[in-house]
Amino acid sequence: MRIDAHQHFWRRDRGDYDWLTPDLSPLWRDFLPDDLAPALARHGIAGTVLVQAAPTDAETAFMLSLARSHAFIRGVVGWTDLAAPDAPERIAALASDPLLVGLRPMLQDLPDDDAILDPAAQPALAAMARHRLALDALIRPRHLPRIATLREWHPELRIVIDHAAKPDIAAGDLGQWSRDLAAVAADGVTHCKLSGLVTEAAADWRVDDLRPVVETVLGAFGPDRVMWGSDWPVLGLASDYDGWVAASRALLAGLGPEDQADVLGLTARRFYRLEAR
User: Fold this and answer.
1) What is the spatial distance between Cα 67 and Cα 61, in angstroms, rounded to a whole number?
2) Cβ-based burial of 45 (10 A; exposed 0-12, middle 13-18, buried ≥19)
3) Cα–Cα distance for residue pair 18/99, rounded to 1 Å
4) Residue 277 CA from chain centroid, whole number
5) Domain segments of the chain as ranges
6) For residue 263, which of 23, 60, 89, 119 sits 20 to 30 Å off, Cα-Cα?
7) 275 — pLDDT class (breaks 50, 70, 90)
8) What is the pLDDT of residue 277?
9) In angstroms, rounded to a whole number, what is the distance separating the alpha carbons of residues 222 and 236?
């Protein structure tokens, strides 16, 4: 079963996507399940993980409503304020919905690079681990050492690095990123997503530009801790669904069938506990 482990929907009139502006013209419209369904059918993708794109509780409710009415949405990664005093109670309530599989603080956009290590956030992270919710880490390379520290503090918390931590593919500056990513992967439990790479590459990117990143990720984590995602519709800034599927096929061609099956679906099913959906 193929799973797209990272995609988004939004409706602009909801008004909480502060990052979404008219200058991002390929994204400046609504994107909803009927827009994605043909691509999923075309490529034999049985389900998706719908990931938050706005730091509001209202968007989480919106995504869960979509998941309840569209069976291909196998799980939702939502948002709540992890530093709020009542965050553990909110997390307990969210976890009661079987479609809610994780939470994602938008760490890359926060002014404090150490926000995930804030003492105020630790009760919430402990509650996530207790309720078996995953943490999607939306980060830049500079945040990777913080994730290593977080793992030490919360060894039971399931963590996945979104978009391989967004390495600077366009500049080819991969050295420190590669070392820090390997240090995070060395814990043997943290996972990583092969998603969002084309938007970090140059405008005229080619498959070979992405290959060093993919090889680094697979070498550090192994296929059983790597999951494929589209990052659709943000993907539209640099490619389209068909283009990313074709590039992924070329990038993963060196893996055997079992390893490809892990990356293309089984890892996401295990990590997000989608087996029963």
Assistant:
1) 10
2) buried
3) 26
4) 19
5) 2-271
6) 60
7) confident
8) 52
9) 28
Q: How many helices (H) and strands (E) does the chain have?
A: 10, 8
Decide: 181 and 165 in contact? Cβ < 8 Å.
Answer: yes
Give the integer Cα–Cα distance in Å for 177 and 175. Answer: 5
pLDDT of residue 160: 98
- Mapping DSSP to helix (H, G, I), strand (E, B) and coil, where does residue 54 land? coil
What is the Cα–Cα distance from 189 to 143, expressed in whole angstroms?
Answer: 18
Which residue is it, tokens 């956009």? Answer: 109
Shortest CA distance to 181 belongs to which of 198, 200, 194? Answer: 194
Mean pLDDT of 30-47: 98
Task: Tell whether omega for the bond before 26 is within 30 degrees of 0, i.e. cis.
Answer: no
Q: What is the CATH number of domain 2-271?
A: 3.20.20.140
E-assigned strands of the chain?
Answer: 2-7, 45-51, 73-78, 100-103, 134-137, 159-161, 191-194, 226-228
